[in-house]
Amino acid sequence: MKRKALLISPELCIGCRGCQTACKSWNQLPGAKTTNRGTYENPPDLTPDLYNRIRYVEMPSETNLVRWLFVRQMCMHCDDAGCIKICPAPGALFKTKEGAVAFNKDKCIGCKLCVAGCPFDVPRYDEKDKISKCHLCSDRIAEGLAPACAKTCPTGAIAYGDRDDLIGKAQKAGYQKVYGQTDLGGLGAIYAFKDTPKIYGMDERPAIPESVVFWHRVLKPLAYIGLGGAVAASLIHYAAFGPKREEGGEEK
Amino acid sequence: MTQMVRKANAFEILNHWVIAISFFVLTISGFGFLFHLEQLNSVFGSFNNTKVIHNWAGVVFSVSLFFTLFYYLPEALRLSSDDIGWILKAGGYFSKKAVVSPQDKLNTGQKFYYLFVLVLGIAIAASGFIIWLMPGVRKWVLLSHLVHNISFDLMIIAFPIHIYLGTLANPGTFRIMVYGTVPLEWAKKRHAKWVQKMGL
Q1: Domain tally for chain A?
Q2: What CATH fold (topology level) applies to the domain B4-198?
Q3: What's the pTM?
Q4: Residues of A in contact with B47 (CB under 8 A)
């Protein structure tokens, strides 16, 4: 199956937050009471009950003093996902055949290592200490439907489809570099940024923490190579030199 | 009847079994986390249980490690020129004829093994508690995750060698972990300075 993705186009976004509402509606997530912080951006951060939100970035340029950027914050559905890599519980975090990073709360052991492994600060934990995050509406896309956010988006700022097609479409529209095209094996949420990602508050080069990569590539294999090697070395020593006995000692 | 001398008291024997069993449980469950060994669910029930058991076995391990400070640490720090002699002869493990210098209650290898276990044990316990009790604090968890796994790799290399030296390689030594006593004649050969100090 071709890998699916979301193409986010901040230039098309009008900041209506329909995606936030549609997501809550489909995933049956309760609303939260928040306070006015002097911005339309609301809520202030992702929560276990808020899988995605629109960040309102006020970034005036020389020509435009009132410049509002609407940037979507959500799980990026990395191909090489740090959360899956570091997760110690099999089946708690997994890849669907469409390429979504989904989760199974029953398998989650609540250790929160995925929070440390995620380059985008996405995983949240519910009141039962189970992982909660965007799963690209894996139940919808498995049936060939678009995720709730893409379905509801009135301007096409959130487009769902085959990842290659979406990249081609963005390039045709004049975006040479699509954010997330190659990072982390290619993200499942790609962005058509007009400016540098930094302006939008995004990491220029997102990556899995180096210590996690080192652990995965070196320390993990060394655990069983070390164990096996030490056992083998002991047996070889026994064969070569035998036991160390003391004459007239405990031996009868 | 062979005259015996006591090398370990009842508490030391018990504590050694406690730290050994807790380490074994931690290793099994730890391997389960590293390599997603779902077969372990037939032992622990679920990975949720495995986590709880891993965490609390870590508490047992830490307490047990703390008690070793009182009887192994003073012995392990009693280093002298005889320890250099032991190292130069590699403890006599690679020659049938080598005569190693007289040893204390713990020989040089045992001293260094203890210090090794102590340092790594503190590192693995401290990092484990941080992962357990400070979840989601990214910087600390990442550092602890690294320290926890490096210490584990080193321990899992040393551990089989420790068992080998305490059983197959040195017949008659495993009884210390059961009875706590060794024959006096054997002790005179292996731990001459200790026997001398006891005035036997």
Answers
A1: 2
A2: Fumarate Reductase Cytochrome B subunit (1.20.950)
A3: 0.92
A4: 88-90, 92, 107, 109
